[in-house]
Inverse folding.
């Protein structure tokens, strides 16, 4: 039976975002050469997840891995429905994972963040409470790793990034910098909004980074092995 990993991302019109996500898929293919890696999207780009999952056959052992940092609507609805209708399995989202925190810290260091900066973990956000819980887990780990207080803010839900930046700016002493740690997979709409939010520094997104491919492969193998264990 052919092993198939469907790497499913949101999709974007941003060329830089597309290139960044493509590096993750390429890393997955490199790390798991025995697996047929296919790319799919839940919005904006094609091929759609419905198309890719629907084209699989009973001779293929298919796992859909969300290229999403936190599980939310697309994970629990779009991906879950596509998996159920096609007979595939759905793996977990990429986060939380300590390797994501490692990358966040490196992005802060690369951006020149200092211990006396005010750091904000800036995520896209979700109306799903489970996604917020996942981000808060990453927040706690980042606080421990960075060694100082880190605030959280979101692009799509409260507390919103511009509001948090404005509040912190009003509270901070003169000369204090506000640094946004971008908890985003790739460039695109949300990163552009972060750069308009009034912070002094905005870090680069997580991709490209080979550790993201490692996480995807781990999520794939965990879902595959769990399903096989249930059949024993």
């Amino acid at each position: 039976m052919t092993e198939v990993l469907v790497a499913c991302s949101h999709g974007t019109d941003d060329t830089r975002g597309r290139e960044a996500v493509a590096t993750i898929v390429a890393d997955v293919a490199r790390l798991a050469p025995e697996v047929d890696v296919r790319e799919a999207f839940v919005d904006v780009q094609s091929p759609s997840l419905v198309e890719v999952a629907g084209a699989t056959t009973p001779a293929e052992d298919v796992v859909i891995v969300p290229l999403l940092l936190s599980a939310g609507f697309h994970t629990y609805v779009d991906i879950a429905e596509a998996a159920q209708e096609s007979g595939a399995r759905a793996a977990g989202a990429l986060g939380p994972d300590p390797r994501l925190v490692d990358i966040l810290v490196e992005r802060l260091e690369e951006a020149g963040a200092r211990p006396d900066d005010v750091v904000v973990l800036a995520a896209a956000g979700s109306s799903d409470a489970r996604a917020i819980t996942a981000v808060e887990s990453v927040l706690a780990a980042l606080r421990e790793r960075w060694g100082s207080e880190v605030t959280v803010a979101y692009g799509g839900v409260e507390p919103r990034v511009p509001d948090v930046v404005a509040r912190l700016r009003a509270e901070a002493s003169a000369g204090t910098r506000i640094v946004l740690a971008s908890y985003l997979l790739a460039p695109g709409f949300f990163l552009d909004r972060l750069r308009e939010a009034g912070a002094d520094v905005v870090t680069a997104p997580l991709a490209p980074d080979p550790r993201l491919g490692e996480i995807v492969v781990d999520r794939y193998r965990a879902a595959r092995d769990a399903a096989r264990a249930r059949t024993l």
User: Anything to note?
Assistant: The two ends are 17 Å apart (CA to CA).
